[in-house]
Amino acid sequence: MRWIATTKTVLPWQQQITAIHHRTVQQHLLHLILQWTAAELNSSGQHQLSPMFEQNSSTESAAAESSNNRELP
Predict the structure, then answer these.
(1) 23, 32, 35, 64: which has the highest count of C-beta atoms within 10 A?
(2) Tens digits of residue pLDDT in 50-67
(3) Does pTM top 0.70 for this prediction?
(4) What span, in angstroms and rounded, lies between the C-alpha atoms of 56 and 73?
(5) What integer pLDDT is reported at residue 22 of this predicted model?
(6) Rounded to whole angstroms, what are the CA distances from 41 to 17, 22, 46, 57?
């Protein structure tokens, strides 16, 4: 007769990986939404996004990539 576990133990490193994955997915979705919004504004002939806004979004993307490439302990 086999014993079946009714609860699953989640280790701290698994929680950390899950949190990093969720944050990464959110960042990618936000980036896609911003790209789509900018394309819509440009195609409709409205004002383009300011260079400062574009610089901030690229800086955030680079920071997100560098934080995601860290090795976990």
Answers:
(1) 64
(2) 555 555 555 555 555 555
(3) no
(4) 30
(5) 92
(6) 36, 29, 5, 17
Amino acid 12: pLDDT: 85
Reading the block at residue 22, the tokens are 């969720």
Q: Answer yes or no: are the C-beta atoms of 54 and 34 closer than 8 Å.
A: no
Give, in degrees to the nearest 5, the angle at Cα 48 between 31 and 50. Answer: 75
Instruction: Name the token pair of 7.
Output: 């609860």
What is the token pair recorded at 33? 């939404």
The C-alpha torsion from 25 through 28 and 33 to 36, rounded to 10°, is -140
Looking up tokens 């440009």 gives 42
